[in-house]
Design a protein that fits this description.
The protein has 120 residues and is an alpha/beta fold. Helices cover 44% and strands 13% of the residues. It has a domain at 4-76 and 106-111: Rossmann fold (3-Layer(aba) Sandwich), CATH 3.40.50. Helix 3 (58-65) links the parallel strand 2 and strand 3. The radius of gyration is 17 Å and the shape is elongated.
Length: 120
């Protein structure tokens, strides 16, 4: 549900069940990654799983700088909106458009974080 609180609850359960067996977490949203990071901190486990998120949120940038997250994938909302409007205009003009309009994504890591600003 792209909900930090639900991710926190689910992560608590996963950490309780799997503990130090967790090598990595892929979250479909940076807020969900934050839920996992909170649950991990609460657990007191001394593990350092690879944590990846999507969205390019400021909290993800902060977590990357702190060494808690490995990366976030930037999906700037303004770019998504621009592509949606451009595609809609083409459809309304009777033009044929591709079934899938790919979005350019940028992976932000500790190695390139200084080159980017959070999406939001």
């Amino acid at each position: 549900d792209f909900d930090q609180q639900k991710a926190l609850v689910a992560s608590r359960d996963l950490i309780t069940k799997f503990g130090d067996q967790i090598d990595g977490v892929y979250a479909e949203d940076d807020a969900m990654a934050a839920g996992f990071l909170q649950a991990l901190e609460e657990s007191g486990l001394d593990i350092k799983p690879v944590v990846l998120g999507i969205g390019g949120m400021k909290m993800a940038f902060d977590a990357i700088n702190a060494g808690q997250m490995s990366s976030t994938i930037m999906q700037p909302p303004f770019e998504n909106g621009r592509l949606a409007i451009e595609t809609l205009v083409k459809v309304m003009a009777g033009e044929t458009v591709d079934a899938v309009v790919p979005l350019e994504n940028t992976v932000v890591t500790k190695d390139n974080i200084g080159d980017y600003e959070p999406a939001f």
